[in-house]
Structures are given as C-alpha cells and as structure tokens.
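Re-running the complex after MR caught last week's input typo. The corrected sequence lines follow. Everything else is unchanged.
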Amino acid sequence: MSDRRLYVDYLARMEGDGAMDIVIGENGEIKKAAWEVWEPPRFFEAFLIGRKVEEAPELVQRICGICPHAHHISSLRAMERAMGVKVSEQTRLLRELMHYSDWIMSHALHIYCLAAPDFVGYESVVAMAGNPDLLPIVGKALGAKRLGNDMIVAICGHEIQNRTSVLGGYTAVPSKATLQALKDRLKASKEFGYETAKLAAQLANAEPYKSLERKAEYVSLYDPKRYPINEGKLYSNDGFEAPDEEYPIWILEKHVPNCNCKHATLKGKGNLVVGPLMRVNNNFGTLSADARKIAAEVGFSVPCFKPFMSIVARALELVHAIDSAIELIDVLGEPKLEPIKYEYKAGESYAVTEAARGICCHGGRVDKNGVIQKYDLIAPTARNIASLEDDFRAFVPKLVNLPDDDLKLKCEMMIRNYDPCQSCATHSIKVNLHREK
Amino acid sequence: MTDRAEKPRLAVFKFTSCSGCQLPFLNMETEILDLAESIEVAYFAMAGASQPGPYDLAFVEGGISCQEDARRIRKVREESRILVAIGNCAVYGGPQALRNFLPLEELKRAVYPQPELIHCFPTCQGIADYVSVDGFLNGCPVDHGHLQDYIVSVMLGKAPEVSTRSVCLECKMKENVCLIVAEGVACMGVLTGSGCGALCPSFDRGCYGCFGPSADPNLKSFANLCRELGLTEEEIHRKFRYIVNNAEAFREEAERHVPQPVES
Amino acid sequence: MVLQGQAGENAVVGRDAFDEILARLQERGYAVYGTVNEKGTGIFRPLGGAGELSLRCTGGTLPPKYLWYPPSETMFTYDRQSGALRSEIEPVKQAVFGIRPCDVHALLALDEVFLGGDYPDPYYRARREDLPLVVFNCVESGDTCFCSSMGTGPGLDHDYDLLITELDRPGRFLLEVGSGLGGELVRDLRAEVARDEDYQVKHRRLEDAAANARTTLETEDLPRLMSEGHGHPYWREISDKCFGCANCTSVCPTCYCADIFDETDFSLTETRRKRRWSWCFLMEFGAVHGGNFRERRIDRLRQFMQHKLNFSVGQYGRFHCVGCGRCIVWCPANIDIAQTGRTIRGDA
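Corrected-run output:
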C-alpha cells in the first residue's frame, strides 16, 4: 500500500486562490497537511510608506473585497490613535453599524453560499436553489445578504468600497428616514436569523462533524460590557488579556520548517485561532438576549471547541448583528453631519477590529507631517493557518476510512470553517508559487 | 427555458486582486437565479463552479504579477471566446501596481523576513500586457450595472456599449453642485470615466479617479487647476499615483510632478 | 379688485397669491416644479408649497428642460417572446412655477426642434402640450447672465400663462394673465388694480436689469463673424484649458441630441428601447464606423459654441444660446461662451 495523497487545487467557495495538500502514510499517519495560499504578494505594507495618513484607510480597504470594512476601520483607528485623534460618539456608532452591516452580508454569504452547499451536498448555492425544498430559505438568505449590502450602501455609499468614512469621521451621514426603513427590514429579518440558527445547528450536529473536537487557543477581542466588533482587549479563552494596541508584542509570527507560511503564535503560548466561534466562546455573555436564547434552544453552549460548530456561531452572530443594528439605529436617531477636524502629529500605534472571520490588526508610524513611515497589517486568515493544519492532523486520522472524494470534501470543509480570505492572508504569509494543474 | 446546451458558458477568474470585482456577481441577489436560467456559470471558484473550458464569456479580475499568473492568463485566453478585463487590477494592474514604482528587492525586504522565498514579477500589470483582451470594464471595483449590460449584450449577440463619459455628467444628472466650482476641491471627476454614479462627489468628497482616465483627459489643465487651488507638486503627484496609478495617462502625469522629499 | 380670470387681465398681488395659484395648479392635477434653494444654488424640484420657492434666480444646475425632455426615457418596449412592441405615450401634466424668460426661449427653441417639420416627436409632445408656465421676469441680472444680449430676457412678453414681475417694494408683484388657463388660475383672487406707476416700475426694473448685465455679447452679424473666426487662435487657447468633461452641454437648456440604446434584463424577456441625452462634446458622439469625426477636443469645443452662436441661426433662424450663463457658471476650467463670442468677433 502506498501513500494516499489528497490534493485540491483551486479551493472553491472561498475568497482567493489556494490549494490543499494532504499526504497520508501507509499506516494512516499524516505525513503532510498543508493549506497553500497562492495569492501573489501585493506589498501594501511597503508602498504605504511615504503615503499620507488619510490614504491608508482608503487603500487598505482594497486589500480584500470581502472584508474591506474591517481593514478600513482598523486602519482608521490605528492612524487616529497614532496621531491622538479622538472621534465623536456618533462616528463610533456609525462605524459599528457599518461593520455589523458587513457581518450580516458576510455571514449570510458564508452560511448559505459558501458553507451550506457542503453539508447538503450541492456544488453551489445556485444548485441548492434548484431544490424546491431549499429554494425558500435560499431566497431569504439572498434577501438578508441584500439587506446587509443595502445597509452598507446607506452608510458608506457603496456595497464594496466605502466612500463616506474618512479619518476623523464621515463626509456624509444617512438620514433618519433611511435608517428607519432599514430598521423595519432588520426587524422583518429576525425570523430568518432564527431559522438560520436552527438550520446551522441541524447541519453541524450530524456525524462526523459533531464529534470532531480540538481544544485550542481561541483568541478574539473582548469587552465585558459590549460584544466586541471595532473595539476591545485582546483576549483568549486560556487567560490571556492585553490592550489591542499591544498586538505586535503579544502575537508573534515565526517560520516553521517545511512550511511556506508564517505561523502566528501567542507569546508564551502557541498556535492560536480566530473567528466567530472564538468570539462567541469568549463573549457569549454580551451576545444579544435573543441570540443567547436561540443558542440555548438549538443546544449550543460554551465552551465549544468543535470547529464545525463555527457555522452555528456564525448564525448566532447573524442574529446578534441584526439585534445590534436595530439598537444602534435607535441610539443614532437622526445623525448629523459633523465637521472633521484633526491635526497631524507624529506617533505610532496599532488597532484591532473583528472582521467577520476574526481579528484584523493594522498599525504603523506617522511623522509630524502626516506621512506614513511604517505600516503593518495582519489579516485574520493568516493567523488560522497553523491551527488549521492542527485540525487536519487531529481529524483526518478519524476520517481516514472515508473514500478520497469524501475525505477531500471534509478537509475542504475544515478550511471553510474559518471562512478564509486568501487575498488578505497573503499579506503575512509565505507564498508557494509552485502549482501543478 | 432554453436548452442547457445552448446556454452561453460564463467564467469568472481571479488573479492578483482583492476579489472585490467578483463580489458584484455574488451581490446580484435578485438577479442571480434569473441569470442561472439563461447562462451556465461554468467556472467561478468563489461561487463553487469549476467546470473545464472552453468558455463563451470570461471575466477576469486581477492583475498579472507572477509567473503563475502569466501562465494561467494565457490558458484562460486560449479557452475563452470573449475575454473581458474587469476592474482596476485587470485593466491597469490595480492599487498594488503602486509597487511597480519601487525596486522589487526593496519591497520584498520591507515586507517579508525571508525575501528569497518570494517569487514574483517586478511589476503588477493589467492582463492586456500578456494576452489580447476583448473588452475592458473599469472601476475599483467594477460597476454591477456595467457587468450586467455586458453579459446581456453577449447573450443577445450584440456589441456591448461601454461609456466613455466623464464623472461630471453623472454629477450633473444627480444635480450635485460642482466641487471644483463651488468649493475649490481638486476633484478628478473631470478626468475620470463614469460608471460609479459620481459616488464621492455625492458625498462631498472629490473624485479620486477610481474608474481611470476618461476618453480624452486634459491632464495638463488639471495640473494647472491643482496649482491654482494651492496644491504642491508632491500633492499633484500623489493624486495621479493613487488608486488607478498604472493607467498610462495617470502614470505619465504623475512623473511630470516630481515629489520633493518632505522633512520629517 | 377681484380678478375675472381673463387673458390680458393685470393686477398687483402679494406673495400669498402664489400659494393660491400653486394650489389651483395642483388641484388640476399638475406636478408643479419650481426653483428651491438647495446645496447653495437653485434647483428645480417638485414644489410642496409656494413658500419653498426661491425668488432670486441662481440659474441652478440642470435647467428645467429635463421636465419636457428627460435625461433618459423609454421609447417602447419589445416582448422578446411574442415579438410585440408596446409604446405607451401618456400625456404628462407638469407645470413650472417661476420659470425665467431665458428658459422659456430655450423651450421655444426646443419646440421647433421636436415639433417643427413633418415628424413631430411624440414623446416630447406628450410632455409639452399641457405645460402651464408661470414666468418670473428677472429684475436683476446674475453675474453670468447675458439674456439681454441674446434677446431672451430679462423680461418676457409672450408664451406665458402668468407673468410675474417683482415691483419695488418687497412682496408686491405685477401679475399679468397671458392665457385662458392663466385666467382660471387667478379667477376671483383679490388683488390691487395695477396702476400706470406699477407698469413704469416694471419697465424700469427690467431696463435696469438689462443695463446692469455684467456679461454681454454683441449679436449683430455674429454668425458671419463666428464662421470667419473658425481658425481664430483663441480656440486653441481655451481648448488647452478645456477638460472635455461636457459639463457645459449637460446644463445647456437647448441641447437636444440623444443617444438611442436598448436595455434588456437577465431574464431576456423584455427589451426597452431608450434614449438619453448625448452631446457633441462627448468623444463617443463622433465615433462612427471607421473612426471619429471629432476626435480633437478643440473640434468638440468649437462645435458646441459654433452651434449655439452660429449654426443654429442657419438651421432654425435663432440663436440656440439663450444667455442663461449656466455653462459659464459650471465650467471647471472657467471657459466663457460670451467671452469667446466677444473675442472671436474682435470685441474683447
């Protein structure tokens, strides 16, 4: 008997280009378990040096079309911190609403278009819609995704690239009437959030998914009072806590032999993992009341170290995002156009936000003329690579009796659990440009 | 419904880019099921389709920045009857073409601890530098409506119309007050192709040119206008060397305004 | 006095009369548009009440032309399954409250274009046939207005339903009834009798407005001089500045060119044939099979101005420049059609 190789080039239903390569030895041992990201480097960190500070948030949102707002807000907050710029409460709330809108869009997209087809055995969401039993829920999912997009458009002018949010505030704000119309639609979509959580729990509670468990260092932002999205401390389930601007001190990147990726580790600990499941674990208490209620109803409780439960965590966050958006709209009332005022000041800082798929850190150093001297950015996906390979090593031996096609699919699903964004990931990983097709 | 065999086969490919120009397809929530009736989505990795070619209509997102990109775009060209570059990256090389103006070795050292492991071209270019291209849809990101018009035109067998109007006309149709005239903002709308619906000026911000140069941009006059409005040569340089930095007209104009080193 | 509601009747009214006139237009089913102050300029908007009206003319961005000639409209729809064509041209009931004399002249110019000749345009006609005009005479000239040079203002004496001129005390207006409909709009309204002095004030104010015009252009023999000046170096001077953005043509109240295109949705069930504004200033305008007949910016700029100040006279017997000054206001390169005319004819 020879080695079994599971190789998938062009992983489908995830953002960006990447491949998976798993080699299983004769005795079922894992000889290689790699997720290779082919995305060529784009050198944002290098060409941002010498740019004006205002340009960074504008350019970095173009790192990733899926989570532009996380990059944008992290960059805004880091640059503002570096220069000691304080923004208004309204700006903070609008940024939060903008980011929750992105979560609604992104989570609906991931649950239905990227993840669910695996669980129910279809190639794509369009194929899923061909099943008359599934068509209604697919229709609702597309509707929820549209709602997220419409909210993004209302706040930042464009579905993909924000146009109104700038360093120090907003150049235009949505009207009360616009926000109220969105609130009505959000209320109407609560039922869909509930159905999604039930469906997700049903999918993830099947075998083999529900038995695959692996305890790991779950890292997210944390705030005891408020579910963290744009602000919070760095926190792990294993007792780590630090201010988010200390990110570069605590989260280290190292090279591992025989691997192309820089692996992220938590200082003094080890591999870490980020994403909705980790956020929900660390912040269950501040999820909206309805999200917690639904969690109980579908049998989800924390701590939960089952990576396939991430679809449930995502669904609970969808419910929470809908509730939070409704609340934010109420608090915002009638947003006013506020003057944007700040002065250039030399400084250095970092800031972390929670992208739909996990923490996203930006930071750098600015000189007294507002010119960037140094820029760093660390996207969520890169941090999960090492842990994902741990998942492969832990779970593949349990699934080794599956035929190749099915095992490959299960491994792909393990990657998809992290809703990876490979264009982002490339910003801090080694790139394997060798490919066979 | 037409017979499946008669449906045109659509493909969407990604190269060096952010995926933002593939999103308009995924954001066609209300049209996507209609689209699936009349077209076969044969290749679109992010949406889960990965059928082999040939394709009738291929949309390409992303620039070409490495050997693998170059190899693959040639293959895509061979397999595609109509090949369309969508968005700033595929048309011009994208925001990351900002790296083209810096030496590769310096870039690698700035970003990666082991620069020797990084293999890529010294520049990121639009796909037309490598293969013949049948159509170009500008934007950063591309416009949803433009994509839709293009697909429908191909399905109907007619030549797609791609507007070369300026952003100004979109502002006028929205009755926006001109930022140059009324506020003295060096808005690039006068030089920039339309398609965005005059987004930034509608939010009281000057256009920064993300749809690339319009049909006949008067760069020199714009530079003069910038000077009249008090911009320095360095600021004029950065205006052209920004989101769509690698469009020939903008690239060359940037070179005419050499930035002076700023004292830190 | 109480107005009888006859054409030819005149009276002096206060601003409260505007509310009544507006209400009567709305009662009759008209969507009434007027200039309101918005974004620091005057923009034609559907009016709720007459209080929203701006009495000071600021030219605005788009002229009211879009009411009778929309930027984009469907001409017919085509059912791709049955092959049936459907064209529903419904009469449109709109009215303008506070249109200025220059824009009325522009409307009359468009009437000749769309309704003159053997093939009147049914889409235009549907919007034009029932279009009450409440005209405000201009008692002051804007910086870029040169209607008095073009013979299109500041006063109007024809083609109005009601004509309103502000007298020398704020809130007193001379009201002149120009049509049966105009009469109906003011019947039974209480008003002061218009005295000779009121007419004298009107004429003096209009004469002052004309005399104080800060922009002028001598039109005597202008078409011939423009033709002779086709090679004048000034064209090069301004085309070097010109962005080719076509802002000028997009705000012109007499530009009438259109582009015709088809629009089909993904289901491929229905095609809409549409037309939308197009302008000789666009690069795409001159793109024909085998090339572009107006590829150079200088040629496009010259075509626009020559058409307004020269060719239109040969085509229609009137200038298609009404001196509204919008193209001057909104040119980001500060190009001035009146200045150009003066320079070409040798007056500048």
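None of the earlier attempt is carried over here. Chain C has two domains: 10-211, 222-345. Chain C touches chain B through 35 residues (CB under 8 Å).
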